[in-house]
């Protein structure tokens, strides 16, 4: 059997033109599939960046909220009720809003403002420069140093700016695990300063961040909040809700799905047609093998080895090419959203296996139909 495998690979790579065409088709298809799925994964990760960065275990929100950027203000009694639930270690308010910052050259830049509880500062970021206590200083703000930092003209410590006709001053520079999705810089300040500087409705409570005493208390806490008419989601549940929103309630998920399917069809058609052409051109060789005693299952194994070998190499080249392209894109564009995950790689590998099976099937039928006397008669 080992000899059959060697013969199959030698026959395949002897035709360098067909072999190169097969590799290019599969590599290009894998490249497109991995790129599209990775970009979508990166977008979903960025969409949940605020949930990851704040790090609260439970988020209380209005049931109609689909993501952090579209929070619906809640009355203060929700916070008071949350604090009174058995099993709650502590509950703190947090504010999410948008504002306009006037830069030094007179231009304006939109920013996301996160207001932390004045007492506990729960959800505060990790500081690269400055002290967290300085956020209590007059007009104090902490700026996040991420991919969007340059849009605020790289502010340094003690830099001053104007935000919604109010004076602001940088008292800290922070680092967070994930940048935001829509290319907007982020500022942290206290809760009361945020609702003072940013015009808002009668209610100002964007979310309630809750820390349970133990994991066993979470179901009870969620049932109590649900009875109040609101929703209490764990960090993972909130991230999943945000992901479902972008997947199923926007055109983003469908567009990525269509492009992935198109990439799969391209790879399927190119590899199937090219490999079938390769088999047809080598029918005389397969017929000769059959004439000297090669069994049908051995010819089938030869074709399967050829398809598998080509698809695996094409898969590796496609993944490597896609990964390299994403690395180069991130070096040139820090806010480029893409993430290679095990799920993406597994799905791409499954689609490559389907391509290999399809290509093998249409070629196997042709080889099994050939008769040795037809070859020698020709």
Order of helices and strands: HHHEHEEEEEEEHEHEHHHHHH
Q: How is the quaternary structure best described?
A: single chain
Strand order of the largest sheet: 2-3-8-5-7-6
What's the pLDDT, averaged over the residues?
87
Q: Ranges with pLDDT <50 over ≥5 residues? A: none
Summarize the main sheet. Answer: 6 strands, mixed, barrel
Strand percentage lies at 15-25%
Number of helices: 12
Structural class, from helix and strand content? Answer: alpha+beta
Determine the N-to-C terminus distance: 29 Å
Helix content: 40-55%
Please tell me how large the radius of gyration is: 29 Å
Could you tell me the number of beta strands?
10
What's the number of domains?
Answer: 2
The outline comes out as: elongated
Question: What's a quick, concise take on this entry?
Answer:
By secondary structure, the chain is α+β, with helices and mostly antiparallel strands. Helix content is 53%, strand content 18%.
3D structure, described in words:
- The protein is α+β, with helices and mostly antiparallel strands and 378 residues long.
- The protein folds into 2 domains: 2-46 and 251-377, no CATH class; 75-229, no CATH class.
- Helices cover 53% and strands 18% of the residues.
- The protein is built from 12 helices and 10 strands.
- It has helices at residues 2-14, 16-47, 49-54, 77-84, 191-197, 218-227, 235-248, 251-281, 283-291, 296-332, 342-369, 372-377, and strands at residues 58-61, 88-102, 108-116, 126-130, 140-144, 160-163, 166-175, 186-190, 207-212, 231-234.
- A 6-stranded mixed beta barrel has the order 2-3-8-5-7-6.
- Helix 1 crosses helix 10 (296-332), helix 2 runs antiparallel to helix 8 and helix 2 (16-47) crosses helix 10 (296-332).
- It is elongated and about 95 Å long.
- The protein starts with a helix and ends with a helix.
- The relative contact order is 0.20.
């Amino acid at each position: 059997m080992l000899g059959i495998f060697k013969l199959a690979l030698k026959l395949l790579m002897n035709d360098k033109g067909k072999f190169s065409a097969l590799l290019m088709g599969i590599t290009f298809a894998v490249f497109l599939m991995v790129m599209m799925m990775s970009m979508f994964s990166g977008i979903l990760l960025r969409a949940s960046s605020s949930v990851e960065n704040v790090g609260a275990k439970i988020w209380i929100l209005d049931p109609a909220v689909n993501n952090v950027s579209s929070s619906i203000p809640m009355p203060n009694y929700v916070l008071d009720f949350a604090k009174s639930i058995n099993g709650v270690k502590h509950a703190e308010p947090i504010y999410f809003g948008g504002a306009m910052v006037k830069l030094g050259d007179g231009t304006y830049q939109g920013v996301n403002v996160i207001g932390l509880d004045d007492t506990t500062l729960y959800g505060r970021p990790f500081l690269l420069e400055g002290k967290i206590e300085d956020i209590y200083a007059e007009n104090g703000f902490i700026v996040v140093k991420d991919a969007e930092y340059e849009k605020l003209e790289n502010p340094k410590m003690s830099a001053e700016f104007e935000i919604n006709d109010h004076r602001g001053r940088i008292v800290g520079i922070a680092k967070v695990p994930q940048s935001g999705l829509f290319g907007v810089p982020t500022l942290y300040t206290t809760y009361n300063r945020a609702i003072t500087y940013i015009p808002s409705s009668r209610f100002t409570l964007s979310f309630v961040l809750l820390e349970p005493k133990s994991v066993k208390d979470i179901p009870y806490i969620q049932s109590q909040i649900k009875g109040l008419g609101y929703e209490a989601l764990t960090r993972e549940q909130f991230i999943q809700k945000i992901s479902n929103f972008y997947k199923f309630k926007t055109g983003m998920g469908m567009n990525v799905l269509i492009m992935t399917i198109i990439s799969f069809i391209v790879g399927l058609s190119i590899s199937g047609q090219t490999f079938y052409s390769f088999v047809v051109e080598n029918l005389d060789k397969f017929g000769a093998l059959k004439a000297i005693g090669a069994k049908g299952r051995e010819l089938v194994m030869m074709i399967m080895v050829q398809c598998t070998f080509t698809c695996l190499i094409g898969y590796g080249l496609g993944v490597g090419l896609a990964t390299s392209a994403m690395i180069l894109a991130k070096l040139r564009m820090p806010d480029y959203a893409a993430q290679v995950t095990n799920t993406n790689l597994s799905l791409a590998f499954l689609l490559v296996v389907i391509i290999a099976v399809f290509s093998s099937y249409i070629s196997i039928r042709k080889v099994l139909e050939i008769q040795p006397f037809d070859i020698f008669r020709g």
